[in-house]
Amino acid sequence: HPDFDHLDDQTDGLLINSENWQALNLMQEKFREKIKCIYIDPPYNTGGDGFLYKDAFRHSSWTTMMADRLKLAFFFLETSGVLFSSIDHRERTTLEHTLNYMFGKNNRVEELIWAQNTNDNRAPAYSTNHEYILVYAKDKSVATASATSFREKRPGYEEIIELVRRLEPDYPEPEEVESAIKKLMNNHLKDFKAELEQAGLSFNKQTKKQDPWRGVYNYKHVEYRDSNGKYVSPDEARKKKASFWIWREADSSAPPKETARNITDPNDPNYRFFRPLHPISGKACKPPNGGWRLRYKPDPDDPAKDSFVERDKDKRIVWGKDENKIPQLKRFLHEAGNTSGDNDSGLSVPKSVFHDYTDGAKETESIFGEKGIFRFPKPTTLMKRFFEQTTDGGDWIADFFVGSGTSAHALLNLNKDFGEKQKRKFLVVDMENYVNTVVKGRVKRVMFSVNWKNGNPFNNNGLQHLIKVSQLEQYEDLLDSLMPVWDEEKLPDNIPVQYLYMPEQNQLASSLDLSRPFTQTMRTGRTRETKNIDLMETWCYLQGYWIRSKRVFREFDRVYRAVLTTRNVLVLFRDIKIGEDDAENIRAVCKSFADTTKDFPVSRLEVNHHVDLRQVDLPVQVITADDFLRGVPWS
Questions:
Q1: How far is residue 264's CA from residue 273's CA, in Å, rounded to a whole number?
Q2: What are phi and psi of 452, to 5 degrees?
Q3: What is the pLDDT of residues 429-468, one digit of tens each?
Q4: CA of residue 410 relative to chain centroid, distance
């Protein structure tokens, strides 16, 4: 709404109803190098998926369609930005060649394999149960430079850490904390099984692989250690201000490809088949079949080198009740999978082949309460993992084949996980009316609650967002606004007439009148509905302006709408006729901005239609209808 005083930095999402090439073209200046992550799920060129974009293209036509859009999308990405594109085997090679050309082969990051829970008994040979996601960076060296790039939080890590830190100040016994951890994990497992049921799946050997917490279930032990990592007994924990370290038992055997020298020679210091004495029974424990991961004693030439004896002194060896159990190593939660050098990072390296059996159709069915809302939607879990791996709070993601709105839904779920202060923002685009009926409805529902079943929310645990919805003029709208070449009434009777729509010979039925910027209309869509055109918003898109301040002035003889952009350009629209002089009013508006935005002094005034502002101490640019039609940003 034009009177709603929202600013660009307050907007959490932009939903555009438009053919995607046109939207990307219009948004080119505003979002140039602003997007951190792009995910797209383009038509797979199957000829049978019902996609609204013309499907079953020949390869060359499909490639052209994709190349035109990827060329524009490339300039949207930040230098560290990344693009993910889903595809199946039909156009996988074609897409790879196109991306290599657009991004450069050296900026190819990975090809991900998504294994799904599908089976086609009619397949002549193999039942294909996987798809591909091609990953490209704008500049791979920059995109992979950060310690957190292409990393993901180990699910469950933060919840366990938060629970333990909450109990820690009272210095409870370790058994009490271990019991609380067990309860937390059982509650998660219960919720996970409920999610599977909601998605129409059962908890079994296959779907267990999809449990996001499966990597933390074994971290069920705790012990006190001081700030230097030294073990502290529970009765000294308060005195030494110790904290809990969470651990699991880990395999103590040597890696399969161990190449250390002389590991089988009992007389060599590097011998790996030693038999340590059990601390209680005093009897020798047998070694692992492949030998120990560690040498027995410290290396005199390199005291810092790891050894079994040193680990045992530091209570980092797990002994069994007797000598019959092979001693294990302690692996601590905050150290496992760490690659960043930050022991508290809780990050892990994602795998290129992954299982995700979530049913996207079941997700939309749960939200809307009916089947068949959209054909073949992707699951939110797929995109959520990519956004988490490559973005931080405040970053923008984009999807210009948004379909049923899965990417927007996934981002809203991610924002819910990270909280208000770590919100990501989305720019999503698609055409036809399902943007209003499906995508917008889905976004509204998920903002209210992230948990739905049969069209009903479990609660109202959503996160508040401000989403801007825009509809752009389409090519068909332009054609429908053209006047025919011939006037049928002036032709003799009984002469057949074929109307040729040739823009170079035709004229628009109506043109922009910049003297009345608030009442310009056009006919849109198949119903030819008349709608107002938001010229101020359009102008800001064309020029690439981000709004810093927005005001409406009603105290004069006419309404003045003004926005101050991040480039300190003041854009001012009002109704005006040739010959009218409202320079005094405009000077007052400019002075008002100068008084209230001293930190952002106005550098230029852009005003619609006729104006005589020789007395305004600002560079002035008059916006004309031709400026809109050209769409070329001013320098």
A1: 7
A2: -135, 155
A3: 998 788 888 999 999 999 998 888 889 988 888 889 999 9
A4: 7
